[in-house]
TrEMBL record:
Record keywords: DNA-binding, Transcription, Transcription regulation
SMART domains: FCD, HTH_GNTR
Xref: PROSITE patterns: HTH_GNTR (PS50949)
Keyword NADP attached: no
Protein name (record): Transcriptional regulator, GntR family
UniProt cross-references to PANTHER family, sorted A to Z: REGULATORY PROTEIN GNTR HTH, TRANSCRIPTIONAL REGULATOR, GNTR FAMILY
Length: 227
């Protein structure tokens, strides 16, 4: 016999949200949505988790506030960390400290490129080729926002090819700051003199040359003049 609606215990809204947050965390920590991955859309989460749209929205918002997820306008919501260190790091790196951001990027990206040259797999190389092609297409489009996202995606692919989970998580935590440095460098328009070729970086990784990959990764990450 099907129980009457009134006899079914319906958890308070706050409890449902907490349960949904824990379900999302479990999927992230379990590797279903690794760092850098785009999570399913809101309707898909509603169907998968069996809760209402508002509950999903609040749970996602809480994880964004915690620095685990990041909403990107027109693109979706992405996993940027598996812990709550991200917002602490991100706040320090986006507080008008562009010279520091570039130094941190250099520390991460140079080592990531070196490791990628040593550890890249055929799948990594395919991902790098795809990301590089998307970056080139974004540059030709003339749209600054599109190019910034494509450039960040290429650098993220290099970090992924390093196969160091901790490095990938720390790098993801500074994703917003990374895009900010690129956006500042580009200005309001994609001018030819601002173009930086990343093809040589990808080739150095493909050739398995860690020294050359590190040099290429660091070549375009110089602090602003006067810094």
């Amino acid at each position: 016999m099907t129980p009457a609606v009134d006899s079914v215990a319906v958890p308070p809204r706050g409890h449902r949200v907490r349960q949904t947050i824990e379900q999302l965390r479990a999927r992230i920590l379990g590797g279903e949505w690794p760092v850098g991955a785009k999570i399913p859309t809101e309707p898909q989460l509603v169907a998968a988790l069996g809760v209402g749209r508002n509950t999903v929205r609040e749970a996602v918002r809480a994880l964004v506030h915690a620095g685990v997820l990041e909403c990107r306008q027109g693109s979706g919501t992405y996993v940027v960390s598996t812990d709550e260190l991200a917002p602490v790091v991100a706040r320090r790196l986006t507080d008008d400290r562009m010279a520091e951001v570039i130094e941190v990027r250099r520390a991460f990206e140079v080592e990531a490129a070196r490791l990628a040259a040593l550890r890249r797999t055929p799948e990594d190389l395919a991902a790098l080729d795809g990301a590089l092609a998307t970056r080139e297409a974004a540059w030709r489009s003339g749209r600054v926002g599109q190019f910034v996202e494509a450039d960040a995606a290429l650098h993220t692919a290099v970090v992924a090819a390093a196969h160091n989970t901790m490095l990938a998580e720390l790098y993801a935590s500074v994703g917003a700051a990374l895009r900010s440095t690129v956006a500042q460098a580009m200005g309001e328009a994609l001018e030819p003199e601002r173009y930086v070729d990343h093809g040589r970086l990808v080739e150095a990784i493909r050739d398995g040359d860690p020294a050359r990959a590190a040099i290429e990764a660091g070549a375009f990450l110089e602090p602003p003049s006067g810094a």
